[in-house]
Amino acid sequence: AKARHFNWEVEYMYRSPDCLEHIVMGINGQFPGPTIRAKAGDTLVIELSNKLHTEGVVIHWHGIRQLGTPWADGTASISQCAINPGETFKYRFKVDRRGTYFYHGHYGMQRSAGLYGSLIVDVADGEKEPFHYDGELNLLLSDWWHKGVHEQEVGLSSNPFRWIGEPQSVLINGRGQYNCSMAAKFSNPPIGQCKFRGNEQCAPQILKVQPNKTYRLRIASTTALASLNLAIQGHKMVVVEADGNHVQPFAMNDLDIYSGESYSVLLTTDQNPSRNYWISIGVRAREPKTPQALTILNYSPTSASRIPMSQPPVTPPWNDYNHSKAFTKSIYALMGSPKPPKTSNRRIVLLNTQNRVNGFIKWSINNVSLVLPSTPYLGSLKFGLNNSFDQKSPPDNYDSSYDIMKPAVNQNSTQGSGIYTIGLNTTVDVILQNANTLAKDVSEIHPWHLHGHDFWVLGYGESKFKEGDEKTFNLKNPPLRNTAVIFPYGWTALRFVADNPGVWAFHCHIEPHLHMGMGVVFAQGVHRVGQIPREALACGLTGNKHN
Ligand code: C2O
Ligand code: CU
């Protein structure tokens, strides 16, 4: 194992992610940011300099559990202070486990602005993956709006509310096409054929493969909003990894991926090598207004410029939830994976509702819409600064008379910065309960992501979770993940062991939803947290503490 050092500068720059020029947030002149590649057991040291002129910044290492380094989790107001313009902060943490991960901004809506990149951890020297492959391809998926994030943010926090709308483009490794299509002759409504020389910033990254080999495709989604579905023409994919954990391999024609998730799939290039194949990515779970993203699987020695002669795979209908559920429920842990404790010490039921706070539209969890304090929780708890956030904890359950099938009778909610305090090393069940939004007959998908831990996904159910439903939990081979969705009007049950001292965000990974309060905070064993670098807490009430 070794230490890998990086010097990064975050800045705004001009780019044309989907062939139209806008400003994006990039790192060292790159968008997406540089890919980090490390081996399990390595220590990463990233010196992050903030070259933005008027905004703070932090970076979260999504999927890395930060065992023993909760201050390096990169969540503004939770694990650290935002890094001021002109300042540098040194993240130092261990990547203890192989897997497909990514990193992204975790302050305001900087992820939507383009602050993200891949983080890939290979097995340690001398270790092997439980599957074979000859080559590797990496796809980082995101969505892109032409409206800048500051305008998006103001719209979301205004009354009347202004929704950000659907993304203009879906990007593959930061590249997409807005005003042309690579498969123009199949598109309806008609659109012009893209003409690329290959050096355009939006020219798709062609995936080059040799015939009769097996490739590992690493796919991660850091979308702000979109749920995606990926298909490769004429090829099946065998899913082997989800969120850094091995799963029982299973073959699929197409794969659903929600924001915050990552997968590895194996692809065997056993098709006719004298042609190329489409890779298509479409939007699901919201009425799509975004054209599908396309790139090409290019069999050597066929020319990369040869456009496949047939229509790209079409995404299943956006509201075919049975298709999504079937995929999600076919994911099981690989035999020999850690099993969940048989029982839990505490059950927290979290009702997800859309509400109003003084007329402003928000998302609330058990009727509390999260607002983050100016002093990071980690510092407040470590130093006992009780007036830096609400001392009252949000409730462990919601009023059992609440009808999840309808818009709330009382739509008024409250804002708060209270947190859940969890006993160190206790086992916690979280039941995420979905409900109707403010609009009649609407319930949306939300991918929930937990920091600092993986959880076991014990099960999914329809309508309200009720006493006795725990009998249906899968305790035998539930997948370990860090992100799990709740389907419309349904519930999802998770179990985790609170064995990582620190303060951890648990939230919907749809960035505008988090911005509207859709999250909670779990604190555990903060007294056991060791030295926290002083620069992590140089703001708010911890600003003059010397720890
Ligand atoms: Cu990738 Cu708190 O998120
Ligand atoms: Cu959400």
Q: Would you mind describing this structure in some detail?
A:
By secondary structure, this protein is mostly beta strands. It folds into three domains: about 5-120, Immunoglobulin-like; about 135-330, Cupredoxins -  blue copper proteins (Immunoglobulin-like); about 345-540, Sandwich (Immunoglobulin-like). Helices cover about 5% and strands about 35% of the residues. It contains four helices and 32 strands. It has a six-stranded mixed β-sheet, with no helix packed on it. Strands 21-20-25-30-27-28 form a six-stranded mixed β-sheet, with no helix packed on it. A hairpin with a 6-residue loop joins strand 1 (about 5-15) and strand 2. It starts with a strand and ends in a 23-residue tail after the last strand. CU-O-CU linkage (C2O) binds near residues 60, 62, 104, 260 and 505.
Itemize the secondary structure elements and their pairings.
Blueprint: E1 3-15, E2 22-27, E3 36-39, E4 42-50, E5 59-62, E6 88-95, E7 99-105, E8 116-122, E9 135-144, H1 149-156, E10 169-172, E11 207-209, E12 214-221, E13 227-232, E14 237-242, E15 245-252, E16 254-257, E17 262-268, E18 276-284, E19 293-299, H2 321-329, E20 346-357, E21 360-365, E22 368-370, H3 377-382, E23 414-416, E24 420-422, E25 427-433, E26 446-450, E27 455-462, E28 480-481, E29 483-486, E30 490-497, E31 502-508, H4 511-515, E32 519-524
Parallel strand pairs: 1-4, 3-8, 9-12, 11-19, 20-25, 22-23, 24-32
Antiparallel strand pairs: 1-2, 4-6, 5-7, 7-8, 9-10, 12-17, 13-16, 13-18, 14-15, 14-17, 18-19, 20-21, 25-30, 26-29, 26-31, 27-28, 27-30, 31-32
Residues 446, 508, 510, 513, 518 line the site of copper (II) ion.
GO cellular component, one term: plasmodesma
Domain Plastocyanin-like: 10-122, 138-301, 410-524
GO molecular function: copper ion binding; L-ascorbate oxidase activity
